[in-house]
Amino acid sequence: MLFRPRRRDGLPGLSRSIAFTLVWIGLIVMLPLAALVLRPWQDGSGAVLRALHDTRMYAALRVSFGCAALAALVDVPLGLLLAWALVRARLPGRRAVDALIDLPFALPTAVTGITLATLYGPTGWIGAPLARAGIRVAYTPAGIVVALMFVGLPFIVRAVEPVLRGLPPELEEAGVLLGASPMQNFRRVVLPPLLPPLVAGFGLAFARCIGEYGSVIFIAGNQPFRSEIAPLLIVVRLQEYDYDGATAIALILLLSALACMTGVAALRRRVSRGLVARGAA
After folding, report:
1. What is the pTM for the complete model shown?
2. First-to-last CA distance in the chain?
3. Which of 37, 137, 187, 271 could form a disulfide with 120 if both were Cys (CB 3.0 to 4.6 A apart)?
4. Which CATH homologous superfamily contains domain 52-272?
């Protein structure tokens, strides 16, 4: 009887490393998520239904989702413009701007919230001129949008920048030779390859913004039914020992984030297939 030699991994200990990684991911990611999904049902479906009949919760979810969607939409053209400036423009201080874009990733969210509340407050450097013009930003839903724009902008820039950097310049040169105007060249040559990263960046920014807490509570005002966000209401429910209500809100945010990422991935694949089919035609 012939025995086949045991196939060896390309790297020593690869199988054990993969197994250890999967176990570790299960412990720190999947186990807490499973506990969050199962916790609301421990006291029966009645407790979940009572938690879902909370008008304050729906108002907080409406504020969180509405402000997150608006902030992510505004970040799309701003992120595209910043990525274009970093890749195509040779501006002085470009490296400093490139480093500052990642600042929301490194800066503590509480510091971000305090800084924005100071700047956009009634006596702040930006808030005071706006207040004289009759525009209030701090302690209103507009302040929430400003904070979420700051948090979500790096996702758009970092998603678009590598694609824009790898775009062959010959494509634009061919468009110019064929008589395309600068706007036509941008709309028909440059923009289509950037659509998938723009969609991906929007989804990442939106999913990040709906769960943002630290940078928002200092500038939001936190008024129930007006400027109270869902993550803050989770903390309020925990302080009231309403664990069913807190976990119900957290579960809604979790499922919404997963649905958002799944939908964005499907939309990105669809856009990519459409671009490939258009290019083949």
Report:
1. 0.82
2. 56
3. 137
4. MetI-like (1.10.3720.10)
